[in-house]
Amino acid sequence: MRKRYTVSDGKFVLSLEEAAEGGYIVTSPLDPELITQAETIEEAFANARDVAKALKESRARLMRRLAATATV
């Protein structure tokens, strides 16, 4: 059975699950689309910040496209 940990840096809450090949599978209980991998806890937070930024940008583009089609 793989171990799971919940960790927080005050900004992110992450779930870390030990990966079979080593390191961690990183997810967020607050955002089911945030998924990444990391070798260390520090890398997990860095990767999570990068993924969260990419998700925010992607969602903003989607909302702009939806708004543009709604006004047509």
What does this structure look like?
The protein has about 70 residues and is α+β, with helices and mostly antiparallel strands. It has one domain (about 5-70). About 40% of the residues lie in helices and about 35% in strands. A 4-stranded antiparallel sheet has the order 1-2-3-4, covered by helices on one side.
Look at the structure and give the mean pLDDT.
94
**Helix/strand order, N-terminal first:** EEEEH
| Overall form | elongated
Please state the oligomeric state of the protein chains shown: single chain
The whole-angstrom Rg is 15 Å
Helix content: 40-55%
Please tally the β strands and state the result.
4
Q: What ranges have pLDDT less than 50 throughout 5 or more consecutive residues?
A: none
Could you give a short account of the major beta sheet?
4 strands, antiparallel
Question: What is the fold's blueprint, element by element?
Answer:
Layout lengths: L3 E5 L4 E6 L5 E5 L2 E8 L2 H30 L2
Antiparallel strand pairs: 1-2, 2-3, 3-4
Keywords:
4 strands; elongated; 72 residues; 4-stranded antiparallel beta sheet
Brief write-up:
With 72 residues, this protein is α+β, with helices and mostly antiparallel strands. The protein has one helix at 41-70; strands spanning 4-8, 13-18, 24-28, 31-38. β2 (13-18) and β3 (24-28) form a beta hairpin.
